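Ticket #4471: complex job returned nothing on first submit. Input attached below:
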Amino acid sequence: MDFLRPTTWQEALAAKADQPGAVPVQGGTDVMVEINFGVRRPPALLDLTRVAELREWSMTGGLCRVGAGVPYAAVIAELGGPLPGLAQAARTVGSPQIRNRGTVGGNLGAASPAGDSHPPLLAAGAVVEVESRERGVRMIPAAEFYLGVKRAALEPDELIRAVHVPPATGPQYFSKVGTRNAMVIAVCSFAIALHPRERRVGTGLGSAAPTPRRALEAEELLAAELDWDAPLDPALLRRFGELCARAAAPIDDVRGTAAYRVHAIGVMARRTLTWAWTDHLEKRAA
Amino acid sequence: MRVTFTVNGRQESADDVWEGESLLYVLRERLGLPGSKNACEQGECGSCTVYLDGVPVCACLVAAGQAEGRQVRTVEGLADGDRLDPVQEAFVECGAVQCGFCTPGLLVQAHDLLERCPRPSDAEIREALAGNLCRCTGYEKILDAVRLAASRKEHR
Ligand SMILES: Cc1cc2nc3c(=O)[nH]c(=O)nc-3n(C[C@H](O)[C@H](O)[C@H](O)COP(=O)(O)OP(=O)(O)OC[C@H]3O[C@@H](n4cnc5c(N)ncnc54)[C@H](O)[C@@H]3O)c2cc1C
Ligand code: FES
Ligand code: FES
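Support reply: We reran it on our side without changes. The output follows.
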């Protein structure tokens, strides 16, 4: 096995191009578990933690550009203002030790349907910036990034550089069902983002289908029928919950049954929309 | 490969490190620092917690090569010579140590909590220790110990 230690982004891209089998490692909270248990014996590890620019975030072109190596602890401490949904999700990841090391980039790289970053990125309309030495930068909308269980739209010579997330213009919420309060992979999860300027609501479902996904019909329903100046219509809220539940295509597994997940997605959809709507009306009244 | 980093203030090197090896393995098996425990190797138990560049992490999930040139502080580095850290004293006095397997990780994590947050609430203590499993004590004595250490540190 090789251990590759690029110190610049260009070196990292060159290393990945020359050795596409090399497995990138940032926090190692997914990769090292697999190596410790012999699930994976890659020809090389490509350590990205020396590439300083991956650990930075900035506001560019009206978007918040979060480097692939920004750990959850920094998302929580520094990005709760512009990216409240992502920060809420980050608060639920693993333990403090895991949040100190684990990154949004690593969550995207692993592309697990249960990854907690995915629902808020989908709801906010994030775009993933990936790059290869030969073909340069590709901007992949989050909704097109997840292709299958633990499979992402990433070519073997590409690396994730950053994720671009529109800063919140309205309330955002993340909700996760787990068997206890800490250290659990989501049984299922749900994120919502209100976009009042566009009169649109974004959604994201986690652990409820082979990939994280949006509830498109539910989003269309609200775009067509939501009155942004009035209290929530209970009938509309109920239909929203039903359409979110219908967008789920879960499986039975050790963490929960498919039927439970469908039910829980509907409940979380109604609750998070209610919380967000309360905030929205309060803000208007203030 | 050879890996060189600073452990508890001393520069250390390990040779013939396998590229997939964890920092935990290097500390315990190559550098003779068995304080950090190996219980799960999957980030679930926290008994391998060490500071890496001042931040608590699971040493079992850090690739050894990622520690190259960095600063590591283990449970062995918490005491000041013969003088135990207040967190260590409090764990002994409160009976927060039984088999001791979870203790090194809890000490590092509790030490970090009190550095960042000198007067933690119970909720903050629980949150900080959520990634450290103990199968013996039932956690109440651990909570007592952290509260005692916090009050002692304040009066030092
Ligand atoms: C105890 C424990 C609890 C956990 N709890 C949760 C949880 O509650 N919620 C959750 O979502 N996850 C959880 N995880 C999983 C893990 O922490 C997250 O998926 C985390 O985001 C991974 O980030 P990382 O930097 O550690 O990734 P790594 O392990 O370094 O990498 C993960 C994957 O991404 C690839 N990769 C990394 N960086 C790049 C890049 N720049 N370009 C291309 N590919 C890349 C790697 O090759 C690998 O396939 C948990 C893990 C553990 C061990
Ligand atoms: S041995 Fe590292 S967390 Fe359990
Ligand atoms: S004292 Fe035995 S595991 Fe905690």
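Chain B has a mean pLDDT of 97. Closing as resolved unless it happens again.
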